[in-house]
Amino acid sequence: MLFTGFFIFPKSASTFAGEVDAFYFFMWALTLFFAIGIAATVIAFIIRYRRSDENPAGADIEGSLQLEIMWTAIPFAIAMGIFAWSASIFVNMQRPPDNAMEIFVVGKQWMWKIQHMEGRSEINQLHVPLGKPVKLTMTSEDVIHSFYVPAFRIKADVVPGRYNTTWFEATKTGTYHLFCTEYCGTNHSRMIGQVVVMEQAAYQDWLAEGNTNATGIGASLANLSPAARGEALFTEHGCKTCHFDGPGRVGPLLGGLPGSTVKLEGGDVVAADSRYLRESILNPRARVVEGYEPLMPTFAGRVSEEDVMSLVAYIKTLSPPPGAEAHTTTAP
Amino acid sequence: MSELVSRVQHHFADAEQQYESATFGMWVFLVTEIMFFAGLFTTYIVYRHAYSAAFAEASHHLDVAFGTFNTVVLIGSSLTMALAIAAAKQSKQRSTAIYLVATIALGCVFLGVKSFEYAHKFHENLFPGANFVYPGPDPAHAELFFSIYFAMTGLHALHMVIGIGVMSVILKETLKGSYNAEYFTPVECAGLYWHFVDLVWIYLFPLLYLIGRH
Amino acid sequence: MDSHESSLKSYFLVFFALMALTALTVWVAFMDLGMMNNVVAMGIATIKGLMVMIVFMHLRHSPPLTILAIVVGIFWFAVLILITMSDMWTRGLLGFPGK
Amino acid sequence: METETKKKRVTYLNVAHGVKSWLFTVDHKRIGLLYLVSITLMFMLGSFFAVLIRTELLTPAGDLMSSDNYNKMFTMHGIVMVFFFLIPSIPAVLGNFLIPLMIGAKDLAFPRINLLSWYIYVIGGCFTMWAVITGGIDTGWTFYTPYSTTASISKVLVPAIGVFITGFSSILTGLNFIVTIHRMRAPGLTWFRLPLFVWAHYATSVIMILGTPVVAVTILLVGLERGLGLGIFDPKLGGDPILFQHLFWFYSHPAVYIMILPSMGVISEIICCFSRKRIFGYGFVACSSMAIAMLGFLVWGHHMFVSTQSTYTALIFSVLSMAVAIPSAVKVFNWTATLYKGSISFEAPMMYVFGFLGLFTIGGLTGLFLASVGLDVHVHDTYFVVAHFHYIMVGGALMAYLGGIHFWWPKITGKMYAEWPARIAAVLVFLGFNLTFYPQFLLGYAGMPRRYHFYPEEFQILNVFSTAGATILGLGYIMPLCYLLWSLRHGKDAPANPWLATGLEWKVDSPPTPHNFESTPTVDEEAYNYPVTPAAEAQSV
Ligand code: HEA
Ligand code: HEA
Ligand code: CUA
Ligand SMILES: [Cu+2]
Fold this sequence. Notes:
The structure holds four protein chains of four kinds. Among the domains of chain A are: 101-209, Immunoglobulin-like; 224-315, Cytochrome c-like domain (Cytochrome Bc1 Complex, Chain D, domain 2, Orthogonal Bundle). Chain A has six helices and twelve strands. Chain A has helices at 15-48, 65-94, 200-209, 226-236, 274-282, 305-317; strands at 101-108, 111-116, 121-123, 125-129, 133-140, 145-149, 154-158, 164-169, 174-180, 193-198, 261-263, 269-271. In chain A, β1 (101-108) and β2 (111-116) form a beta hairpin. The longest helix of chain A has 34 residues, at 15-48. Residues 1-5, 216-221 and 325-332 of chain A have low confidence and may be disordered. Chain B has a single domain (35-209), classed as Cytochrome c oxidase, subunit III, four-helix bundle (Four Helix Bundle (Hemerythrin (Met), subunit A), Up-down Bundle). In chain B, 79% of the residues lie in helices and 0% in strands. Chain B has seven helices and no strands. The mean pLDDT of chain C is 88. Chain C has two domains: 1-62; 63-99. Chains in contact: A-B, A-C, A-D, B-C, B-D, C-D. Chains A and D meet through α1, α2, β7 and β9 of A and α4, α6, α9, α10 and α11 of D. Residues 253, 256, 302-303 of chain D line the site of copper (II) ion.
């Protein structure tokens, strides 16, 4: 676009930027059309019909049904057009493509913690490859934050107690702003960071570097992929003592669980999405699998949001036990 | 007659306009009360929808007997209130006063039972917060249930307290002989308020006490 | 004073009906009707509520304007609940958490 | 001769003297003035915070105050301006004063409740002042959970109680208006003969009574959660912070129409008067107020597009938000058409109307930017939003409020203000306003988030513009304060109908007598039966 990069416009570095900018320019055109149109009409009337000795009083006009219909119907049509256009942009933003690579984001007062699947983690920085759709799965440890990259034209609230998703495909290498846009306390305005878009090869190299200074997130588990960390946590927290394939098993087998549907005590059926898995770990008694006793202890307070994400990532790698369809929810 | 005229405030054209304005105003006020409780009911429905099993489970920690008893008491007080208005309309000041006393008494019984229930819940550590201890499964969502339980019944009880206060004033005025067949608007309005409070309870009772009882 | 007598009578009638319905709603609550339990409970509450409004609160003698006010109140009550619930009902339908 | 008789005339102002006669008055006109004074004080307080905000934002580094203090500044600016200034402004001051006059009544239906609602307002205000003095509040005016319930280190409870209490002031005012408009109209004053100002207030009152209780109970729940430890929105218990947002915006979106509808009423009155012409399409302007009030309740989720609200619900809210723009558009077009073949003059109130037309159009259309889901993802919670709502609330509602104050000043005080300073102030406000807030649209699209104490350097130029504009704007606000006060002593005495306007309020003397009308007037003509010729006017007096 013409003004891109000029100080009154954000950089544009994602596939959305062009669409959103085009829409934005259209909206300004429309606004100027109406604002100038109305201003010009008003000014014309003021000049033409200003009070004078020849024009001491206004004409007696009641209104006009035709005009009323016209200026109800036309704005309505325009408004619906605007809606249709913006909705199509929006729906696209809501649906990450299937081939998107996933990155975990955890917000907390006042930093962004980012975990790549290959193991590297970072704080207040997000490295992403050029030209590859990236899907962010996000949650918060305390209050609501919001993940905003103006150059990508995306934003999504990061809400405690649940996951949110957003995605983008970067189109230009460079360094871009990352802002927190939901007010979250003292250092809200410093909960900022950078998004670094790299060539794919450079990104691979960067990933391979590993965590040079393992700080913050699970220093002892540095450089492990979430799935590997999850496996370690799975052992560490003794999940294996109940979820193992063998006689005397008390918990259901977890292989193949993500993406399937689960029958619960009481007859309800739920989809085993990441929200369900998260809840199963942090608050297992909220939904108990049919045929099992509510024996699983809660892990709330013992595992962090990143740990949960890692555990879920690990559970996703488990394969269904041979012979069972999907995963067995039938009691042993 | 002069008595009657003085009852019409200066800015009203006549007694009828005054009466209609007052009762309509009272109803509009009740509409705001509906919306006030609407916020609470929405909260309730959202969570009940999300955590129905936990809610049913937690509801079993409330005592249906107390709830039913209180429902009867409150409906009874609505009856005495209606009778009080009917009596006031006929200038029967003595029976108006008696019915009002009955209404107030029943209201107090309700609050008494309620506070007994509250005390019991405190005792059982079922009041949300740091001391919350819940024996059943899923304590988190049960705590949510009790939060809503206390918010809803607490605000309902607050309305009752206000209602009893209003009623006491009406009673005092009745004893002074302020109301008669020509002028009983305040009694009528207080009655509308009282019935509304009853009405809210009629919904609260099944929603809080009777979930998943079978 | 005929109307007076009749209104007194109706107060008592309604009172006893309300008592009966209270008993009914408690009784029904202990039966397993599945989803119908909620429907019945709310249905009974609504009948009770209507009786209180129409008889105790003199709605049958009220001007239409009053009825309009109540209808408006209930309508907006429903708007609040239904639109909020529409969010709860459709969450996650797209298959991505938070969408 | 006329001034002679005027001196002796008993007016609502001189009928009684002393502080007590004001504090215990039940006269709607005096209560209107009580509101005028308290609301002006609140506006000064809110402006004071705005000045500090704008000064801080001159530089990217937060060098004037700490981040905590900055956060308190915008929170208190928002709370004071919204709940204590703009929501009560036109209804409680002008509405209170004018509605009984306009419909030929001696007072509102419940004069004592009217006084009560002022006291409630003052008590709520005191709570807020107390909060301000004892350390402020830092949640943003939206009180979002779980920040407000768990994380905030400030005294959330006190201002929350303040807002809760003030809500009842608003409810009681709305209730009073509704009953008054239904029950107390003069004989012959049918619904479609009502001034549009009254229609607008009727619609406003409907929102007040249906919406305010919901925010009251929501704030109460936040208070219970913070004060007593109930966990209603606590995500740790499975509570839903988004539910809080639903409940909050169920009121707070319609609340923006509480702010704008009365100003639309003011505009309709002024524009007819100074073009000496009846309004174009009376029925449509009247009904569009009601349409805005109704539709306004169905769009609240447009504040939550990126909040994890479901995609489907977001789309529904988006399309409904588009629909709510239509009645506003109808009004703008009808006002413009009213000028056609008018006899237009440029007294200060009319200058404000012209300002309003332009700024409201831009503010409203940028509302459509925000209602467009796909674009809102980018501009949500940036300065674009800040610019949008200041365009409507400051450029629209506040302009109309000032216009209305000027227009009815002669009626309220019995004095004429000085015309030329008033015109200059109107122009200053217009120019200063645009310089302050237009740059914020650009800032927002460029990506500057709102509620930011520190900001990246590239945003500085536009922020400097904005602060410069605020200085001019401030000047434009201080001027009316001066010349209006000046007019109280030195202004010319106002005749009953200085602008030759229609409407019952102009048929009584300025200032009116305590009981407004000697005898209840009978109305036998349509609203806005312009022109009012000086001859006809002389006859009717
Ligand atoms: C008086 C106050 C007021 C008014 C009247 C409005 C009116 C409107 N508002 Fe605004 N708004 C606010 C005050 C107001 N708003 C505030 C305070 C916030 C921020 C809250 C916060 O987060 O702190 C906000 C935020 C806000 C958002 C959320 C932004 C975000 O946080 O991401 C949205 C989104 O849809 C929105 C939309 C609208 C729309 C569509 C209108 C419409 O009603 C506008 C209708 C008017 C017109 C459209 C102009 C006239 C029409 C024409 C001249 C004809 C041409 C018309 C067409 C072609 C359709 N507003
Ligand atoms: C009616 C509502 C209203 C009004 C009139 C205003 C008026 C103004 N507002 Fe306000 N504003 C809001 C409602 C309003 N605002 C809301 C709701 C928010 C959101 C809060 C939140 O995020 O929670 C907000 C936020 C907000 C911000 C964003 C802060 C942030 O996100 O970090 C900014 C920044 O520029 C701002 C600026 C201004 C300015 C310059 C004015 C100017 O119009 C003010 C002009 C006045 C003067 C310059 C002073 C004139 C002087 C006097 C009258 C004498 C006063 C006396 C002394 C100084 C002693 N406002
Ligand atoms: Cu995190 Cu703002
Ligand atoms: Cu809105």
